[in-house]
Amino acid sequence: MISAYGANRELVIAAISAAFSEIRRIDQVMSLHRPDSELNSLNARAADGPTSVSQELFEVIAQAQKVSEQTEGSFDVTIRPLADLWGFIWKEYRLPTQAELDATLPLVNHKLIELNPEMGTVRFLKRGISVDLGGIGKGYAVDRAIAELRRHGIAIAMVKIGGDLRVVGAPPGKQSWTVQIEDPKKTGDRMELQLRDAALSTSGDYENFFMIEGRRYSHILDPRSGLPIRGIASCTVIAPTCAESDAYATAFFVFGPEKSIERFGTRLKIEFTHAEKN
Fold first, then answer.
1. In this structure, is the dihedral angle defined by the CA atoms of residues 82, 221, 98 and 102, taken in order, positive or negative?
2. What is the rounded distance in angstroms from the CA atom of residue 40 to the CA atom of residue 106?
3. Higher pLDDT among residues 207 and 14, named by residue
4. What 3-state class would DSSP assign to 8?
5. How far apart are CA 149 and CA 161, in angstroms?
6. Rounded Cα gap, residues 132 and 31, in angstroms
7. DSSP classification of residue 92
8. Residue 61: beta bridge partners?
9. Mean of the per-residue pLDDT values for the chain?
10. Which residue has the higher pLDDT, 213 or 178?
């Protein structure tokens, strides 16, 4: 969703069209669901040696690696083999055995990605490594769409993709944008926040999950245990850019409320909702 304001209606429409085109372009680069994406090409080749990638794909992976280091591996783009094992990527859900988890966990470790900034290359240090940018790619696409709107002279806009959004300026006659955060219980009781020149992302256990014998299994997995995180329903982060808010919302969901707020609460706004036992 894109909302934008400007004095010239035709220019605003052209800017919105360009922003949507930019989102589609980023999807072509970073989507796991497109066989011809640059990310899938990287996943197919990087175990064979250093692989050249576009500057923006390199920078997004590098930013993800930084978040991984800051959160002790709570955020990890090599989560793909685990997400596949649980069936979360294609929503073909299954409950893996402990033996399957034990066999897959050695393939999940952000330290097995080698980045060479001078050459612009990415190398996987073990065969079977596969990168999933689902925890940062949408946020980056939002940032790129905002940049495209600004390039077209738009100073007041909101771009939203799923649980990730970013706003610039404020609607006419207002001081800020009113944004709503989904209620994890799906009762319609949404929290409202006022936002201006900032990004917001929410990670939750209520969008991509399955139930077995009354127990919920969410797509947000702990890269170290291979198991879905329990006890947290949602984590919302407000940050300067949407790539940051997207990645940190996922990272903090795994990192936990206490350490997240203690280490990052002075520079990021963080809100947690605890889950009901099930």
1. positive
2. 21
3. 14
4. coil
5. 15
6. 8
7. -
8. none
9. 93
10. 178
